[in-house]
Write a structure and sequence with these properties.
Helix content is 78%, strand content 0%. It is built from 12 helices and no strands. This is ABC transporter permease. It holds the Pfam family BPD_transp_1.
């Protein structure tokens, strides 16, 4: 009997198995996480420099060149950082207060259809009111300082938290709810073991929407009632035509918002480690 060649042996044994690629969530490398935002920042700075310094398409009274803004910050970094600290404290405190109240209100609305029908229209109406119109009223009622600023933060960012909490708690997957019933779980056990964990990703969506709104609320409050903070600094600098200082404060507001937002994203990843393992961005 003649010996079969290797291709003939493979053919006789059947087709070789085709390796199946592993399917799972794509992980971004640490290098990409750092370099891509940095590249976007450099592109934005380049466009800013091109429009203001090279093409001179924008008047310096509207948007000064990057060098002028950097010089304004370098002239008094301590002053900027002090005001940034005040705005950060107001943003975080107002966000925490609105988060606590928003989650509690969302729990109440999700637990009672009667309460939802009674108060949801009122919450929608309160959310629709332009908050800047309430500034003078808050000053008249609460005076100057942090109280009206914190109230403005609360009014701006509590509604997304209420909505996401109520939506998350009323959209529990049917298979999980059926599993809890089949195990004769009490209402509290079903809430603690099934409904709340299933709702946490949706709740964090509302929190991440509300975080930038908290920074906006703090700045609006400082515009109208603040005695310190970056919003107060913008008003003072704008009043004397110092647009470089005003833009330096605006950039610090943006940086503060980015840091707070990604701190919340990190908290979500630490609190909900299973979400990234059970979902995929495709």
């Amino acid at each position: 009997m003649t010996e079969l060649s290797k291709p003939q042996q493979a053919s006789a044994a059947g087709p070789e198995p085709v390796p199946v690629p592993r399917v799972g969530p794509r992980r971004r490398t640490g290098l990409g996480v750092l370099l891509l935002p940095l590249a976007g920042l450099l592109v934005a700075l380049g466009m800013w420099w091109l429009l203001t310094s090279v093409l001179e398409a924008i008047h310096p009274a509207v948007l000064p060149p990057p060098g002028a803004v950097l010089s304004a910050f370098a002239a008094a970094p301590g002053q900027f950082l002090e005001h940034a600290g005040d705005t950060t404290v107001e943003t975080v405190v107002g966000f925490v207060l609105s988060s606590a109240c928003g989650v509690l209100i969302g729990l109440s609305l999700a637990g009672s259809r009667v309460l939802e029908r009674m108060f949801m229209p009122l919450l929608v109406a309160v959310n629709a009111v332009p908050k800047i119109a309430l500034g003078p009223l808050l000053v008249g009622a609460l005076g100057w300082g942090q109280k009206p600023v914190l109230t403005m933060v609360f009014l701006l960012c509590f509604f997304p938290i209420v909505l996401s909490t109520a939506a998350g708690l009323t959209s529990t997957p049917s298979d999980l709810a059926e599993l809890a019933r089949s195990l004769d779980a009490s209402r509290w056990q079903a809430f603690r073991k099934v409904r709340l964990p299933a709702a946490l990703p949706q709740i964090f969506v509302g929190l991440k929407v509300a975080m930038p709104l908290a920074a906006i609320g703090a700045v609006i409050g400082e515009f109208q009632a603040g005695e310190s903070g970056l919003g107060y600094l913008i008003v003072q600098a704008g009043g004397v035509g110092d647009t470089a200082t005003a833009w330096a404060a605006i950039i610090l507001i943006g940086l503060m918002s980015i840091l707070l937002y990604f701190a919340l994203v990190l908290l979500e990843r630490l609190a909900l480690p299973w979400v990234r393992d059970t979902t995929s961005r495709g």
